[in-house]
Specification:
Aldolase_TIM, Dihydrodipicolinate synthase family protein, 12 helices, lyase, alpha/beta
């Protein structure tokens, strides 16, 4: 598997009666594939992972694998409190045809460095699937340091990092220490172009769920060295990308999906749809983005 390019962290689509909405999932997936994404990630933070049952995760993986039919990788996020359950989910994902895994540190317990490394290694040793470590100390309170990565990369199937420390210089630290042994994918929408310019291999994106073509265009233009064109799109995109930084990023991005007609606003409790001034503020940002949406170059040929 190649950890490179744009990997949408897909939202999980629900019906009005709170069941999986696979038809809307397919609508969004087709938009992603047409835009040229390089893989998808299921069951991440944006995918409301903490509200999904294991059975629902299995349904999503199986359905996505069948729909994609090998065109791009299908990656499942694992965010569990216990090592045993994380291993079980990894085994199930492999059985269902997933291409890889993204791993968060242990949930609901602030593990120390030794415990965090042991957790990741136990999962990696239980599967042959390629693995990307999700390093997000801002939201999940556990940082995977460069020294910890030195231990983790002893295992061949630990291959990539979703870099969400908010420290752009971490791209350089990782590259200086490990060269191309580890693939680096930016995990913060508002830092994506900066990290790509500094050598990141890809982008685990959020607003791509509503704006797939613009996201892939920025990535491909940067990698083609067409920075002025990429910068112009990125500047237009920034107010929308900032919706990814809020605790209500799920509601914000699902509202954007509804406005671009490739999703709905339906969220799972305890989340609630946006109302009042907050809704008006977010819709103003989305409408302005749509009204000024840029014409894109033929980026798919890059």
């Amino acid at each position: 598997m190649t950890w490179k390019g744009v990997f949408p962290a897909l939202t999980t689509k629900f019906t009005e009666d709170d069941t999986l909405d696979l038809s809307t999932f397919d609508l969004n997936l087709e938009a992603q594939l047409s835009a040229g994404v390089d893989g998808i990630i299921l069951g991440g933070s944006l995918g409301e992972a903490s509200t999904l049952s294991n059975e629902e995760k299995d349904v999503l993986v199986k359905h996505a694998v069948e729909k994609i039919a090998g065109k791009i990788p299908v990656v499942l996020n694992i965010a569990e409190a216990s090592t045993r359950e994380a291993v079980r989910i990894a085994e199930s994902a492999a059985d269902l045809g997933a291409s890889g895994l993204m791993l968060l540190p242990p949930m609901r317990y602030k593990a120390d460095e030794r415990e965090t490394v042991a957790y990741f290694k136990a999962i990696a040793k239980s599967t042959a699937l390629p693995i990307m470590i999700y390093n997000n100390p801002v939201d999940y309170k556990i940082e995977v340091t460069v020294d910890m990565f030195a231990e983790l990369l002893e295992l061949d199937n630990i291959q990539a990092v979703k870099e969400s420390t908010r420290d752009i210089s971490n791209v350089t630290r990782l590259r200086n220490r490990f060269g191309d042994r580890i693939s680096i994918l930016c995990g913060v929408d508002t830092l994506a172009m900066e990290e790509l310019v500094m050598g990141a291999d890809g982008w685990v994106a959020g607003l791509v769920c509503a704006f797939p073509r613009e996201t892939v265009a920025v990535y491909r233009l940067v990698k083609a060295g067409r920075l002025d064109e990429a910068r112009a799109i990125y500047r237009w995109f920034m107010p929308l990308l900032e919706l990814d930084l809020h605790p209500k990023l799920v509601q914000y991005i699902k509202l954007a999906e509804a406005h671009t007609e490739i999703g709905t606003e339906h969220v799972r409790l305890p989340r609630l749809p946006l109302v009042g001034q907050e809704r008006e503020r977010v819709e103003t940002i989305i409408r302005k983005g749509l009204d000024t949406r840029p014409d894109l170059p033929e980026y798919l040929k890059l």
